[in-house]
Design brief:
Blueprint: E1 14-17, H1 19-22, H2 33-38, H3 40-46, E2 50-53, E3 57-58, E4 70-74, H4 81-93, E5 97-102, H5 112-117, E6 131-132, E7 153-156, E8 161-164, H6 179-194, E9 199-202, H7 220-236, E10 241-244, H8 250-254, E11 265-267, H9 271-281, H10 285-294, E12 302-306, E13 313-314, H11 320-330, E14 337-338, E15 341-342, H12 346-349, H13 354-366, E16 370-374, H14 432-437, H15 442-455, E17 464-467, E18 475-482, E19 485-492, E20 498-502, E21 511-514, E22 519-520, E23 529-533, E24 538-544
Parallel strand pairs: 1-2, 1-16, 2-5, 5-9, 9-10, 10-11, 11-12, 12-16
Antiparallel strand pairs: 3-4, 6-8, 7-8, 13-15, 14-15, 17-18, 18-19, 19-24, 20-23, 21-22, 21-24
Helix pairs in contact: 9-10, 9-11, 13-15
Bound molecules: alpha-D-glucopyranose and calcium ion.
The site of calcium ion has 6 residues, from loops.
């Protein structure tokens, strides 16, 4: 049964899934809704509270479904509307919420709306798009897919004008100055919420409205439109949420929360690359600095914290110097790069070092916000940088060491993508079944961490964060606090053994208990608290009021 907590998204752990990649129920080589429904038990067991499904709408798949050719139907390979409803119902019966991509900045050029529009300049759908006689308007709007597009304008031969597109030229942007477009998009939203969705991850939100003389990002009109949508959702579908994909600098990103009346959640894009920069430099400054810049936010909102997703690790919102550090450390082979970013999964980015993977996840699980796991990263799945576009991080989920990693019984040639067979990440050992048997596996560790996180309220979205100043820049140190609960978190970002001396006088008398093993540490006193810490390792210390004598501590081990 679904709980009716209105702030459910604040305590949730999210999980991101492309439908085609998770499980193939009818052996045609493509994952589908029935398959997804069959694997919900796995997600429940892992401790997942909400799923974000990638675009599943009808599409020619020129941009993996982010090019929608009918908002009101499902790609037949993924199943029927009934399969979709069945999937949502099953998820809800397990108390798992489902949000889906809402891709409204642009559509596919195969959509009937655009095919109509390009017929003639006076077609009734013409004004649903943005046309111009020259490619000169909106000069300050940057091109995003820099590897493939040289302009945001494409020439339409049939009607002899240019149309505007922020992404691939096969994705014409909708014209939000047209009220018909705005009304239609609201209907799209109503349609899917009526079928049971719990909200949306809104794609490419900064770009909806365009104005000459601006960079056409984050315009007030765009914010107002999302506020309107939010109001409509609150009124008509209470409890549903909006999550913003706005890859922007902190000052602009924060604005998507409005005054608590726009998005409930927004991806913390500023933070994500900086976690990797902090590791590369063994210095916590970039992370602490960005967290200070991204807080506070309105009380009913949270940052969505992620390490990886289905796109490249974007390096648009970092300085040139930071980008160089990232490329040098994480993209040594040029195939690893795409656009302004790095197309790799978490395990390969971490050099397949389990301590590094765990460290990054432990940071994600303990920072203020809502964590989101990219499917397969809980297993340490590898990637394939030779697959083109961002397909290398979208390979089939690895369930077992059976044929096709247990994802499908189709002939392997029929799979939508090859499975990962690189020896370091081979599906024969990196899979759900094998890792479920080992208590030392990454999967078992992730499960444990999610459950530990849930038992300590101060680690959830709503706890405060207080940075502890100390001299060792390798060790990222903070305290999470919620009501009278406190968690002291320490992360050694470096590859060396090291130590910290912490001034914890204000907590004198409390006793740190290592939260995962339940192991007691010496009581905090007036002197500096001294802790040694192994390379790329971390501690979560629950600061408790001890009921017992210190001398008994070792009996507890
Ligand atoms: C978003 C999606 C990305 C897609 C783009 C264009 O950034 O995450 O996968 O290519 O929008 O829709
Ligand atoms: Ca299938």
């Amino acid at each position: 049964m679904m709980n009716d907590n209105k702030l459910w998204y604040r305590d949730a752990v999210f999980y991101e899934i492309p439908v085609k990649s998770f499980y193939d129920s009818n052996n045609d080589g493509i994952g589908d809704f029935r398959g997804l429904a069959m694997k919900l038990g796995y997600l429940k067991n892992l401790g997942i509270d909400a799923i974000w499904i990638l675009p599943f709408y009808k599409s020619p798949l020129k941009d993996d479904g982010y090019d929608i050719s009918d908002y009101y139907s499902i790609l037949p390979e993924y199943g029927t509307i009934d399969d979709f409803k069945e999937f949502i119902d099953t998820a809800h019966s397990l108390n798992i919420r489902v949000i889906a991509d809402l891709v409204v900045n642009h559509i596919s050029d195969q959509y009937s709306w655009f095919m109509e529009a390009r017929k003639s300049k006076d077609n009734p759908k013409r004004n649903w798009f943005i046309w111009s006689d020259t490619p000169d308007k909106f000069k300050d709007a940057r091109v995003i897919f820099v590897d493939t597009e040289s302009s945001n304008w494409a020439y339409d031969q049939s009607s002899k004008q240019y149309y505007f597109h922020r992404f691939y030229s096969s994705q014409p942007d909708l014209n939000y100055d047209n009220p018909e477009v705005r009304d239609e998009i609201k209907n799209v939203i109503r349609y899917w919420l009526n079928l049971g969705l719990d909200g949306f991850r809104a794609d490419a939100v900064p770009y909806l409205f365009k104005r000459e003389g601006t960079n056409c990002e984050n315009l007030p009109e765009t914010h107002n439109f999302f506020k309107e949508i939010r109001k409509m959702m609150d009124d008509e579908f209470p409890g549903t949420i909006l999550l913003a994909e706005a890859n922007q600098w902190p000052t602009e990103s924060r604005k998507y929360f409005g005054n608590g009346d726009e998005f409930q959640l927004a991806f913390n894009f500023p933070l994500m690359p900086r976690m990797f920069i902090a590791l590369a430099q063994s210095d916590y400054f970039p992370v602490e600095d960005i967290i200070k810049q991204t807080l506070p936010i309105p009380g009913n909102c949270d940052w969505c914290i992620f390490l990886r997703n289905h796109d490249e690790l974007t390096l648009e919102m970092v300085t040139d110097k930071e980008r160089d550090i990232m490329y040098r450390e994480y993209a040594k082979i040029s195939k690893m790069r795409i656009n302004l970013g790095i197309r790799r999964r978490l395990a390969p980015l971490s050099d397949n070092d389990i301590a590094t993977i765990e460290l990054l996840n432990a940071i994600m699980f303990s920072l203020p916000g809502t964590p989101i796991i990219y499917y397969g990263d809980e297993l340490g799945m590898g990637d394939n940088i030779y697959l083109g576009d961002r397909n290398g991080v979208r390979t089939p989920m690895q369930w077992s060491y059976d044929r096709n990693a247990g994802f499908s019984s189709a002939d392997s040639e029929a799979l939508y993508s090859p499975v990962i067979t690189n020896p370091n990440y081979n599906y024969e050992s990196v899979n759900v079944e094998a890792e479920s048997r080992l208590s030392s596996s990454l999967l078992s560790w992730m499960k444990k961490m999610i459950s530990v996180r849930k038992t300590y309220k101060e680690l959830l979205g709503r706890g405060d964060i207080k940075f502890i100043e100390q001299k060792n820049k390798r060790v990222f140190t903070y305290i999470r606090e919620y009501e009278n609960q406190r968690m002291l978190c320490l992360f050694n970002l470096s590859r060396s053994y090291t130590y910290v001396e912490l001034d914890l006088r204000e907590y004198a008398g409390l006793k740190p208990v290592e939260a995962i093993s339940g192991s007691y540490f010496p009581r905090i006193g007036e002197l500096k608290y001294f802790i040694t810490i192994s390379p790329r390792s971390f501690y979560w210390f629950n600061l408790t009021v001890p009921e017992r004598d210190d001398s008994m501590d070792f009996d507890e081990l």
